[in-house]
Amino acid sequence: MKEKPEEKTEMKSDVQQGTLALMILKTLEVLGPVHGYGIARRIEQISGELLAVNQGTLYPVLLRLEQEGAISSKWGASENNRRARFYQLTRAGRKLLQAETREWKQTEAILSRFFELKPEDLR
């Protein structure tokens, strides 16, 4: 289907490699126990609908985080009474979130310097 010239559609971006785990950890820190679908929807919502989180990407990261001990899970009933696995942050996950947050803030500060760089700064 061709897009009409007057129509403007926003394209959602996929979550960048390495950032999804951090977004999951932060989401669980703020919201407490949440099922996978809820985590994906929250990340999309918080991004202003600019990110798309697909299940094929989300669930392997949840599994890895659980195997690493950063999150735990248990079965429960979702809002619409469906069986769902609810994930929550562990103590190790909180420590990982703090460490990852510090690293990302440092990376952001470094990149910020490059984006603010002007030719006269290098003379």
Report on the architecture of this protein.
There is one protein chain. With 123 residues, this protein is an alpha+beta fold. It has one domain: Winged helix-like DNA-binding domain superfamily/Winged helix DNA-binding domain (Arc Repressor Mutant, subunit A), CATH 1.10.10.10. The chain is 50% helix and 16% strand. The chain has four helices and five strands, in the order βαβαβαββα. It has helices at 20-31, 36-46, 55-67, 91-115, and strands at 13-14, 34-35, 51-52, 71-77, 83-89. The strands form two sheets. Strands 2-5-4 form a three-stranded antiparallel beta sheet. Strands 1-3 form a two-stranded parallel ribbon. Helix 1 (20-31) crosses helix 2 and helix 1 packs across helix 4. The radius of gyration is 18 Å and the shape is elongated. The relative contact order is 0.15. Mean pLDDT is 87; it is low at 1-9.
Give a quick precis of the structure:
By secondary structure, the protein is of the alpha+beta class.
Tags for this model:
single chain, alpha+beta, Arc Repressor Mutant, subunit A, three-stranded antiparallel sheet, 4 helices, elongated
Q: How many distinct folded domains?
A: 1
Tell me the total number of β-strands: 5
What is the oligomeric state here? single chain
Terminal-residue CA separation: 52 Å
